[in-house]
């Protein structure tokens, strides 16, 4: 009888919880009031066209911004997860298929490129450098090409101004491997405010 009462009590508590309460230290969108913000931008690998992005907002501020990865090698199916180490919060999750195509599972949605304002300027603005977040195949990568497509965004400039000594963190997501198609691949660029 005690077990039934305990079970019903726990079930009531769980049902009363709201998913927003469970993840209240995180938000996404283009406008954020969170004290700690990370800008995520997506750029097509083959065309270097900016495709969209979001701002990931966190309640806790941190001095450092380290991205760790959890990688499951795709023998048939694999995955990659990028984690904000200091907060142990996800920045990206995606599946990888051998001879197929995986997909991004976190964040669920990115704002389209059309939602981002561009600055009309001819000056190029760079971070203090580029940091490769994860490159399992040790490919030779050119970071200038994807950077050029996002450096004139108002949000990029805002984040660089707020944190002028940062390096841009880049990750080439390859959801298709083996005989995968590079047209499925895209860059993820991270900047912290």
TrEMBL record:
Signal recorded as keyword: yes
Secretion signal, residue range per the UniProt entry: 1-20
Keyword Signal: yes
Keywords: Signal
Protein name, as recorded: DUF5043 domain-containing protein
Species this chain originates from: Bacteroides pyogenes
């Amino acid at each position: 009888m005690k077990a039934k009462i305990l079970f019903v009590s726990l079930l009531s508590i769980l049902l009363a919880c709201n998913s927003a309460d469970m993840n209240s230290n995180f938000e996404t969108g283009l406008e954020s009031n969170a004290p700690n913000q990370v800008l995520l931008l997506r750029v097509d690998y083959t065309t270097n066209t900016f495709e969209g992005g979001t701002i990931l907002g966190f309640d806790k501020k941190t001095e450092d911004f380290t991205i760790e990865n959890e990688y499951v090698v795709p023998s048939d199916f694999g995955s990659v997860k990028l984690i904000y180490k200091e907060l142990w919060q996800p920045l990206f999750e995606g599946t990888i298929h051998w001879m197929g195509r995986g997909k991004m599972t976190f964040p669920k949605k990115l704002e389209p490129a059309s939602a981002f304002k561009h600055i009309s300027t001819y000056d190029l603005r760079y971070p203090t450098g580029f940091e490769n977040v994860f490159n399992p195949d040790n490919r030779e990568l050119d970071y200038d090409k994807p950077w050029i497509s996002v450096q004139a965004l108002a949000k990029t400039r805002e984040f660089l101004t707020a944190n002028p000594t940062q390096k841009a963190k880049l990750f080439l997501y390859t959801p298709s491997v083996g005989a995968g198609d590079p047209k499925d691949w895209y860059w993820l660029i991270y900047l912290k405010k």
